Amino acid sequence: MQISRFPLALLALLAAPAPPQFTEQLISRDFTYPYGVALHDLDGDGDLDVTASDARANNNLYWFENDGKGGLIRHVIHHQPMSGWRLERHAFGDFNRDGRPDIVIVENSMGDLRWLENPGPEKIRSPWPVHFITRADAVPGAYDVAVADFDGDGDLDVAASSWNRGNMFTWHENPGVSGRLWRQHHIAANLAETRTVRVADFDGDGRPDVLGTASGDGLVLWFQNPGPGGGEWRARVIDTALRPSHGEAADLDGDGDPDVVMAFGMGAEYSRLQPVSSRVVWYENLGRGAAWKRHVVQEPFPNAFDVVAADLDGDGDLDLAATAWNKGTGVALAWFENLGRGQWRQHVLKENWPRAVQLAVGDLNGDRRPDLVAGAEDGSRELRWWRNQGGGR
Fold first, then answer.
1. 26-30, 277-281, 288-292: least confidently modelled range
2. Which of 163, 224, 282, 330 has the fewest Cβ atoms within 10 Å of its own Cβ atom?
3. pLDDT > 90: what percent of the chain?
4. CB neighbourhood size of 342 (10 A)
5. Could you tell me which residues are beta bridge partners of residue 119?
6. Partners of 283 in the beta sheet?
7. Considering only CA atoms, which of 124, 164, 120 is closest in space to residue 142?
8. Sign of CA dihedral 55, 57, 61, 62
9. Phi and psi at residue 269, to the nearest 5°
């Protein structure tokens, strides 16, 4: 006797847990130009804090101290006393090996990198001591930073991109002594509009490589670390497609090597080339970074700006979330549920939020579910977070 499979499929559908719900919460709406957001436990109390840069008139770096339940108290830990300048993207690392997380940040207008020394618990809520990695305009248009021990000497170095003023990727060698400028090394030059810079070991040789995008040239690529002896960083193209913006390395297929997630389309209206395909994709590393396979997660996703990976629904695989740099209409933030077998489902979290930019993911309230934090620049000028409430039946 043949049994119909329809009831079984229906039962499976009914038994599937509902996707998580997210509750939106405002952090601050008095920014003058938010363009850098990150999460880290700065005070060592076991919860994730939020940092956010605020350029132009305010020109501050804020630390939002987490009370452990997602309540955030703002402190100014760096101020550039020149209105109109741009403290923007930043990253974390213990640069002086004192056991406390420091911050490296770009100054886009002055074209420099600087690191902020974590002063410890007694002074952490006051402005942090500033150390310059480079002189002004050493990294013209300094845009993004990432941290790793690139030369294998035991201390943390910094890689940087330089937007459309510098059009290059560089790495900066930590001298191991506070107060000295760091030695600058070129990774690649003459790449139009360098944006993303991230770190992963793509070829499995134990050394940190660099992921980058050149939005103006339509390139997603990684650079092979030549090792402690130095030498040329070899460029390996992952894909050529118009207007790649921001993404990161993540093991989407669970095979143990880093894949890449990427957003395309931000600023499509400014491109000299048409059409620009706005979408969210992931690239499968087919082995040691030598070959890649593109998988489309969502298309179209107009003006896609940034994308991050995390298991948002707790089912054991990685989902994605992305922002869109739109003019005020349409989707600004969404997450994409990984259904397996190459299938994805979009869930919209925020619409009609102009110029959504950098996105960060982490558990802010200690419930073991990853939450989302994002900023939006001109047109919004605010910072928000989305509490992951989990799924249900």
1. 277-281
2. 330
3. 87
4. 9
5. none
6. 260, 294
7. 164
8. negative
9. -70, -15
Asked whether 355 and 378 are in contact (CB, 8 A), the reply is: yes
Is residue 6 a contact partner of residue 24, using CB atoms and an 8 Å limit? no
Token look-up 């020394």 returns 117
Lookup: tokens for 370 = 């990853």
Q: The tokens of 247 are what?
A: 């993404």
Return the bridge partners of 159, or none.
Answer: 146, 171
Residue 1 confidence (pLDDT) above 50: no
Strands 304-310 and 234-240: unpaired
CA max distance for the chain: 82
Nearest to 224 by CA among 169, 174, 155, 142: 169
Residue 354, sorted as left (phi over 0), alpha (psi -120 to 50) or beta, turns out to be: beta
pLDDT of 273: 54
Neighbours of 291 (CB within 10 A): 11
DSSP letters spanning 329-366: SSEEEEEEEEEETTEEEEEEEEES-TTEEEEEEE-SSS
What average pLDDT does the segment 341-352 reach? 97
